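Narrative summary of target 7.
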Amino acid sequence: MKKSNSLNPSPDPSEGPGPSRENMSPQAKGLIIISLVGIVFAGALYWYTSRPSEAPLPPPPAQLKRPQPPQPKGQGPKGEVAPKVAKPAVIPRESFKPASIPAQVKKPAPKRLAKATEPKVKPEKRYRIQVASLVIERNALFLRNHLEKLGYTPVIRRTMAPITRHRVYVGEFGTREEAQRTARRLNVDGFPSNLVQGGDGKFRLQVGSYYNLNKAIDLAHTLQEKKYTPKIDSKAVPTPVHQVRVGEYESRTEALKALEALKRQGFTPLIVRQ
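Modeled conformation, tokenized:
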């Protein structure tokens, strides 16, 4: 009786004619295992080198940091033990040498400027001596010549001053004809006159005009002796005056000395300011 072949199935026709695993030699199996390990190692190395590097996030700004509660010594935040920081090495005092300080450059002493010589101011000469004040210019010129002969240097200062003038009038006439008849008679007696009409319309004859009152009075007496009726009219009027002065003196004391010398020569001077 023939034995059944159920325990040995027929080979699969799809399999090639190559050798089966059971028929592989040990050397072939070792090469396959080494190849698989190399492939796995190469894939792991490629994955490790090609993955993106995770850059550390920047620390939050100082103003946004929350204050941390004080931690006990030797512990960091969340109870972690803080790493020990090495203390800096202490440099001994003997090894420290200060840097050499360069010598200060002495600045040249400033030159003393010579004191400016201030111009000498001459003292002001404020005083003069007025020898006379004359209305008639001819008299002033005569006096100046006389003082020059005495060794002085006189000057004439012309100014205006209110001076009282004394005029001597004769009669008051209602018409010009009456005044002219009296004027002819005065002329014959040696008293020339000028016809003057007043504000009231009346006419008068001016016989003389004087700055010296005594001279006006003398003329009035003479007219009375000639049977005339004189009248003196005195009035202050602006009049040109010629002041004859000498000298220039810084102080009143010096002017007084010159004043006394002029008095001894017959003058009646006075001290005036410039």
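DSSP finds five helices and six strands in the chain.
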